[in-house]
Design a protein that fits this description.
The complex is a heterodimer of chains A (about 290) and B (about 180). Chain A has helices at about 5-20, 25-35, 40-55, 85-100, 145, 160-175, 195-200, 215-230, and strands at about 70-75, 125-130, 135-140, 150-155, 185-190, 245-255, 260-265, 275, 285. With about 290 residues, chain A is of the alpha+beta class. In chain B, helix 2 crosses helix 3 (about 85-95) and helix 3 (about 85-95) packs parallel to helix 4 (about 110-115). Classes of the chains: A alpha+beta (about 290), B alpha/beta (about 180).
Chain lengths: ~290, ~180
Amino acid sequence: MDDNEIISGLVRLIQKAETELPLDVIYALRKAYECEDGIAKIQLENILKNIKIAKETQRPLCQDTGVQTFFIEVGKDFPYIGKIKDLILTAVRKASTKIPLRPNTIDPFTHRNHKDNVGNNIPSITWDFIDGDMVVITAIPKGGGSENMSKLVMLKPGEGIEGVKEFIIREIRNAGGNPCPPTVIGIGIGGGADLAMKLGKKALLRPVGIRHPDNLVAEVEKSLLLEINKTGIGPMGLGGNVTALDVHIEKAPRHPASLPVGMVVQCWADRRASMVIYKDGSFELAD
Amino acid sequence: MIKNYSIPIHHDDITSLHAGDIIYVSGDVFTARDEAHQLLLKKDVHEIPFAFSDKALYHCGPLMEMKNNEWRVISAGPTTSFRMESFEQDLIKKFDINMIIGKGMMGEKTRKGLENKGVFLVYTGGAGALAADQITKIKEVFWLDELGMAEAVWIFSVDHFGPLVVAIDSYGNTLFRS
């Protein structure tokens, strides 16, 4: 495996995530454009124009290039497991000047900007181990405006799924236009406080328009999407029919005493790109 | 046909604008986010190194690139305006601002601050590449070392910047429901 090749592949992965939206997101935004008129339609027209310009010029869609966030599935027989993290850190540093990325990592105590988008625990990497000998890396750069609207609640189990729905709708109303709607909402239900939030973020990996395989969960996703779009918040909070493009739920068993719910809000720029690295060091990029 | 207004905007034009109107603007803007707001409020007016009364305030933390000793704008859409809500009324007063460009809602204090005086216009959030293409000149940057790229005060010339929606007008009307 040639480290430099992988690093330039990873830089391309970040560039693809920052400059081109996945087709499922573009399709959902085009559909939203058809559903709106007046001010709401103009917002979506600007969004679609922006997507085109960013792709053609390979410039980041949004000036907030986000916090570099990766979800990695590592085949347990991949021969270079120990190298992956260092290669990602190097690629993020390189991408910061090459693409470029906005320097978005600030020490919370000293306010010092790390300038290269690398610092303690950042980029954020979530590891999962799978069978096989390849690695799948998904980049989802996460913007601050939408992340600021994310929230955790520890409901009483007695509040049930109805309580979950009430919490989500209340928070969506509070967020209004701030997270740059139409948004994609990732919801983690169950686990503990940390796992609920992580599942909420992980839910964003699923393409827009794809339902949870468990029918019970899928029905809640559908009814929440309907309720959110009834709020009338609309694109950019300026009123309209499309406030969210989709709602994705992931679940884990809960403790008998707890019902944790993690809501992760993603802006319309639902940036996501993946890369597969094979055991011989060759790789491919995909949506 | 969407009308284009020059910055600085005349008071008669301000009073002709109503919440929900769609416009373009051309002229000079200065960027300021949370930290720049605090810094500008701390300083005496005569200490400010640029003329502010002939410029619009733009809530933006741009992505810039230095190439061949020259700044280039890569992506520069608006940032969430509500973070500046607690500072804005004072800033409007101190710097005689009559045009603010941002995204999302602003609150009661900003609405009051703009009454009989100015407008709050919203640009489509996340449309950073589109906005960058409407910025024709990077004139100056202040407090770059101190505040960093996103928080520094950048002076841009913009041409047919928009389409922008009048979200708060000078009559106290707003597009946002509370």
